[in-house]
Amino acid sequence: MDPTRPPHPALSVLEGRSFLTLRDQSRETLEALIDLALQMKSGAVNQALLAGKTLGMLFTVPSTRTRISFQVAARQLGAHAEHLTPADLQMSNHETLQDTAAVMGRLLDGIVVRLYDLTQYGKGYRSLEEIGRYAAKPVINALDDREHPCQVLADILTLRERFGADYRQRTVVFSWAWAKRQKSPGVTHSMLAAAAILGMRLRMVFPPGFEPEEDYLRFAREQSERSGGSLELCHDLDTASAGADAIYAKSWKALSCTAEEDAALRAPLREAWRVSERHFERAAPGAVFMDCMPLIRGDEATAGVVDGPQSIRYDQAENRLHIQKAILASVLGSQP
Which residues make Cβ contacts (< 8 Å) with residue 282, sequence separation at least 6? Predict the structure, then answer.
């Protein structure tokens, strides 16, 4: 970055604040972060913005893309990221989250957290808030049981790259997809929030019983009215696919069910709720397939769709690096 030019405006939009939920962000903030990510990807913005910073990464559940991309993002920005699990810490001996967070806050500049237990919906998000409160340092949400903000901003960055500045006018179908195991609704809720704030055209489709949390649906409706976006809800994937510019497959748990009830509810849905070639026959010309992964070919989508020319899931995965660099730089770059 040219030292004679003013810093990118996104480098101060988060100003040392935690980044837990997209519902707290403005349209201007989200657009600035996406623009900064594009600048970082192109090499136009200096990469060594976090020299001397140390980042803690507390992950209580497995991760591939999120963990690797945050570690690489920190390194490319000049920071060090330390990956931690409860088994590495005294949490394994029942040290409280309060004490763990307080000590981490004394030693680290920021904390990235992935934490949830799908048997206790909402507890993961509350735990992230607790960590931020006792650490008194910025906390970045790397997936809880309510949101996955970093994933969804990478998804929107990918849509912007694919469709250009008018990506908001494209119809994005976000579909529940069959998977054997339960998954967090984090991507679902973050997509509802981000699309509504940014004024996107979102068509969300899911079988009865797998409704997103009502608070997020209400937020999305209200924000879409303000932003000029649109939100459609549908219960038939074939119908929803008509005219789609992007079809995003994502499984999530039934929020009001036990694990046993959820399994019984999803068991008969595999054939009807697997994205396949027939859905792209109904979609708009040039439509793309999206999935945040992991996935099993033949479950969420057919192998032909997953590995076909319409699939941009690897672009989504790569863009995790760039959007997380933008978030890290904005959150930590201005802090002493």
Answer: 238, 241, 242, 243, 244
Transcribe 115-177 into DSSP letters: ---TTSTTHHHHHHHHHHHHH-S-EEES--SS--HHHHHHHHHHHHHHH-TTGGGSEEEEEE-
Scan for tokens 């929020």, then name that residue. Answer: 255
What is the distance in angstroms between the CA of the first residue and the CA of the last residue of the chain?
21
The answer to whether 96 touches 109, Cβ cutoff 8 Å, is: no
Q: Which two tokens stand for residue 12?
A: 């101060």
Q: Are 204 and 192 in contact (CB under 8 A)?
A: yes
Asked if the model's pLDDT at residue 15 lies above 90, the reply is no
pLDDT tens across 50-85, in order?
Answer: 999 999 999 999 999 999 999 999 999 999 999 999
Q: How many C-beta neighbours within 10 Å does residue 213 have?
A: 17
pLDDT of residue 6: 54
Strands 139-141 and 110-114, how do they pair? parallel
- Which residue from 326, 248, 323, 325 is spatially nearest to 292, judged by alpha carbons? 248
Q: What share of the chain is helix, strand, coil (3-state, %, to 5)?
A: 45, 15, 40
- CB contact at 8 A, 266 and 178: yes
pTM greater than the 0.85 cutoff: yes
Among 17, 3, 266, 6, which residue's Cα sits nearest to residue 132?
17
- 320 Cβ neighbours under 8 A, 6+ residues apart: 65, 66, 69, 150, 151, 154
Residue 10, pLDDT score: 75
List the Cα angle 266/63/204 in 5-degree steps. Answer: 40
User: Could you report the per-residue pLDDT of 256-282, keeping only the tens digit for each?
Assistant: 999 999 999 999 999 999 999 999 999
pLDDT in tens, 197-220: 999 999 999 999 999 999 999 999
